[in-house]
C-alpha cells in the first residue's frame, strides 16, 4: 500500500470540493513538478512541461515527447465536477423566523440523501468592481455548518406513502442559514400587523450583515456568484481494517487525482503525455469547460503552434493519432443489491483498475465502444507492469447505465477506453472506494503513459 499516495489523495478530496478548487490544487502541484503556464512559453521542445487552464475550471497538462506531435499523445482524461446542490441567483429568503438559501441540484442525485446532513458552502462571488471573493464555510472545525431539514416520523404518514422519487422535490432542497427568536406578540396575536414583516426580515438582514462583514458581499452580488453546497467534513478511513475510503466527490476525483500524479511521476518518451481534467461531465459535458467544448483541440493547437510550423492538419493528425484512457469511475458490485449486477461482468472493490469496453445504457446508447486492438495493447502493458485490472460493465443490460467523456474523445478518431476506480454508493453525498484500487489506478495510468505508437 502506498500510504503517501493515499494521504495525498485524501488531502486532495478535502481541499477540492468544487471543480475550481480541484483545478487550483492540480495547477499548484503541477508548478511544483516543473510545469509552466503555456502563456509564458513562446516555443516548446522535447521535455518541456506546460499547462493550459480554462476559466479556472478545466486544465490540460502536457509533457512534450521527443517524437513528432502529429504521431499523437497519450491522454489521461478525467472530470473534476461532482453531484451537488448549486445556489440560485436570488437565493436568500426568510420564512417564519428561519432564513433559507434556495438551491438547484446538479447532476444525478437521490434527493432524499441530502436531508439532515451537515453541509458546507464553497465557491466564488464576483463583484462589479472586478474582485472575486472566495467563499468556503463549513469545513473548518470552527465553522458553522448548514442543513436541509426533514419531517419528523411522527408527522410523516403522508410522506411515507409517497415514492422515493416524489417525497422530496427539488424546490424543497433549501439550506437553513439562520434563525430569529419570534417576538411574544407574534406568537400570541398572529401575523396581521404591518410591523410583523419588518420583524420577520430581521433574521435575513442579520445573515446578510454577516456576509457583508466577512466577505464584502451584498444581496445583489448573488446574481454573479457560483456557490456550491457540498457535504461538510473530511474524508475518512472506512472499516476496522482501514482498507476503504469514505469521502465526498470520489466520482470522479479518484481518477483525476491519480491521473495527475501519474503524469507528474512520469517522463514523456517519444509521445507527448497529457492529463486532461474537465468540468460539467455530470450534466452532459456541456459549456466552455466541458469535454464537448473545443477546449482540448484549442489546447493542442496552442501546443502545435509553439512546436514549429502550425497547421490545422497537424492538430487534426495529433488528435486522430492519440490514445486516451477516459479515467472515470465504475459502479462497484454491491452484495446487498446483487440482482442489479451481472456478477461475472461487475467490478469489485479492491479488484484493481476497471476497464469498461463500453458504457452507455441498455442498447449501448451514448457509448464509444473501445477497439479490441487497443484493449489488447493495454492488457499487455499493464501485465508487464504487474498492475491489477478488471473488465466490467456498470450493471445489468436492461437495468440502466451511464456515460463518460469517452465518446466525445472518440469523435477525433483516437483510441479510447474507459478505465477508472470502482465506487460503491456512487453519487451519494459520501462515496466508498478501496485504497488498493486508488494505488492500482495510479500504477495503471503510469504504465499507460509509456505506450508507444501502435
Chart the SSEs and their pairings.
Blueprint: H1 3-15, H2 19-32, E1 36-37, E2 49-54, E3 58-63, E4 73-79, E5 84-95, E6 98-106, E7 119-126, E8 132-137, H3 157-161, E9 175-179, H4 184-189, H5 195-215, E10 225-231, E11 236-238, E12 244-247, H6 250-264, E13 272-278, H7 295-307, H8 312-320, E14 323-326, E15 330-331, E16 353-356, E17 360-361, H9 372-384, E18 389-391, E19 401-402, H10 406-410, E20 415-420, E21 422-423, E22 431-434, H11 435-448
Parallel strand pairs: 1-2, 4-13, 4-14, 14-20, 15-21, 16-18
Antiparallel strand pairs: 2-3, 3-13, 5-6, 5-10, 6-9, 7-8, 7-10, 11-12, 12-22, 16-20, 17-19
Helix pairs in contact: 6-11, 7-8
3D shape: globular
Contiguous uncertain segments of 5+ residues: none
Order of neighbouring strands in the sheet with most strands:
1-2-3-13-4-14-20-16-18
How confident overall, as mean pLDDT?
93
Major β-sheet annotation: 9 strands, mixed
Tally the helices: what do you get? Answer: 11
The helical percent reads 25-40%
Radius of gyration: 24 Å
Strand content: 15-25%
User: N- to C-terminal separation?
Assistant: 32 Å
DSSP, total strands: 22
Structural class: alpha/beta
